[in-house]
Write a structure and sequence with these properties.
Blueprint lengths: L2 H53 L5 H11 L5 E6 L5 E4 L13 H7 L6 E5 L2 E7 L2 H51 L13 H83 L5 H28 L2 H6 L1 H15 L4 E5 L10 H22 L3 E9 L2 E8 L15 H11 L3 E6 L5 E8 L14
Parallel strand pairs: 5-6
Antiparallel strand pairs: 1-2, 1-4, 3-4, 6-7, 7-9, 8-9
Helix pairs in contact: 1-4, 4-5, 5-6, 5-10, 8-9, 9-10
The chain binds adenosine-5'-triphosphate (ATP) and magnesium ion.
The site of magnesium ion (MG) has 4 residues, from helix 9.
Length: 462
């Protein structure tokens, strides 16, 4: 039901209550008036008839009948004269006033007073005087009908007036509703004009402010979504870049091993032959022999350097055994190279199981760079490395007891820490630097495992 109809209903109900109350008051008033009038007239009529009967006491019934016939009706009283045998000798005529009409029974029952008839003994029979309030009651009923009709017309007129006024007063609400509907359909640019009335005016301003706020929010959300999309694209780009770098490193490691390794081996074989020929043959050239020996040592050095480089380019354990084995391998190598540093490893499970390859390589490179930094900058004696799979994520941790950083954050102009952060973000995770409980720097990374999806690669440039 509309607000307008509801207000009208309330006003109509209130008016009906007032009209009902007035009707009851009127009914009670009519009832009192009728009682007053009827009992007074009944008293007078009884008194009058008593006086007359005293006067006619000497006469006979016929004379009394003549007298009563001449008198006719005594106000609102019915008189009936009975003979000694119960025969009706006289009955007063009905009232001519509003003849043929009566008030409804329910109304009459409510209004008519309960007056007992008076029976006077006369000439052996009796004269019965009964009050008859039907005319007075009919008057009351007619008055009430007219009053109710007038009230109904007034009620109707007032309701129509109220309907029109309420409609006018509620018009601003309809405008507000129309604007809210349009906002609900996505049109947030719509605004309300200045509305009449202080309340409507402030309501309209509030709706306009709401629309403006929604517009601003939407613009902000749009910008945020665009920024998020840009970020996702950048992550994809970084991921793609790192994948390509890793692929390049893998190729480089393979080429180094296969091509350069064979060439170095070939040169080494030649140098060996040269040393043997120049040294063993009589009259051999000692200078050529020394050159051959130098060449042999150089190719040996080259071979060792090449073999040391290959694992750095592509850790072989990562491909063969997985992440935790590769990290363990890395740490084992460092233990040998740096016997003065105590390395502690925490690999409670095998987090590399079923981990996607980019995640394994990313995690390995983060640990590798963190450990390189410890060795280069920390002057540490104790290092803890942890790799735990927990709550749908891989948690990396490298702690040292070294000098630490006054402000543990990536340093402009340096690549290592920035690279670690970017790698973590490109994998959909995060990396934090802080003060370690060992006293030095703490590196913590969280890389999501479940639901890991390869970021959309950026299309190659033409
Ligand atoms: N474990 C550490 N303990 C103390 N200081 C550190 C540690 N790790 C990094 N730092 C400081 O943070 C700086 C930035 O490190 P980052 O790895 O970004 O660059 P870098 O190691 O100096 O050079 P590169 O770009 O070759 O990695 C370092 O120069 C060093 O001062
Ligand atoms: Mg570094």
């Amino acid at each position: 039901m509309t607000l307008r109809a509801r207000i009208n209903l309330i006003i109509a109900s209130l008016m009906l209550v007032v009209v009902g109350t007035l009707t009851v008051v009127d009914l009670l008033g009519t009832r009192n008036a009728v009682r007053e009038e009827i009992s007074a007239s009944h008293r007078i009529a009884t008194q009058l008839v008593r006086e007359v009967l005293e006067h006619y006491g000497q006469g006979n019934a016929g004379q009394l009948v003549q007298f009563l016939t001449r008198v006719g009706r005594v106000r609102s009283n019915d008189m009936t004269l009975y003979a000694a045998d119960g025969q009706v000798l006289y009955r007063s005529p009905p009232s001519a006033y509003k003849q043929g009409r009566d008030a409804p029974g329910w109304y009459a029952r409510l209004v008519i007073p309960d007056l007992q008839p008076v029976e006077l003994p006369v000439f052996g029979g009796s004269l019965v005087i009964r009050s008859n309030a039907s005319r007075a009651v009919l008057d009351g009923w007619d008055d009430m009908k007219a009053q109710m009709l007038g009230t109904l017309v007034l009620l109707l007129a007032v309701n129509l007036l109220v309907f029109a006024i309420v409609g006018r007063c509620l018009q601003p609400l309809s405008d507000v509703r129309a604007v809210l509907d349009r906002m609900g359909q996505g049109d947030y640019a719509v605004r309300l004009p200045r509305l009449p009335g202080a309340e409507a005016q402030s309501m309209g301003e509030a709706v306009n402010r709401l629309g403006a706020a929604i517009e601003t929010n939407r613009a902000a959300s749009l910008q945020a979504a665009q920024a998020e999309a840009r970020l996702a694209a950048e992550r994809g780009f970084v991921q793609e870049l790192q994948s390509r770098i890793e692929a390049e490193r893998r190729d480089l490691a393979a080429s180094l091993h296969d091509e350069m390794g064979q060439s170095v081996t070939a040169v080494r074989t030649l140098a060996h032959t040269l040393v043997q020929r120049c040294g063993a043959a009589p009259g051999g050239d000692p200078a050529a022999r020394r050159a051959g020996e130098l060449l042999l040592r150089t190719t040996d050095g080259l071979y060792d350097a090449m073999h040391a480089l290959i694992p750095r380019l592509r850790p072989p354990a990562l491909d063969a055994l997985g992440l935790s084995a590769a990290v363990a391998d890395l740490v084992q190598g460092l233990r040998i190279q740096h016997p003065g540093i105590a390395f502690e490893l925490n690999l409670p499970d095998a987090p590399d199981l079923a981990l996607p390859e980019p995640l394994q390589i990313g995690a390995y490179r983060i640990v590798q760079e963190a450990l390189t930094n410890v060795l280069r900058h920390a002057q540490a004696t104790r290092v803890q490395v942890g790799l735990v799979r927990r709550e749908h994520a891989l948690h990396l941790q490298v702690d040292d007891d070294g000098v630490g950083m006054a402000r543990p954050e990536p340093v402009a102009g340096r690549y290592g820490l920035y690279g670690m952060v970017e790698r973590a973000q490109a994998l959909g995770g995060a990396l934090r630097l802080g003060r370690s409980r060992l006293g030095g720097l703490a590196v913590r990374a969280r890389l999501p495992v479940d639901g890991w999806v390869m970021p959309t690669p950026v299309p190659p440039l033409a």
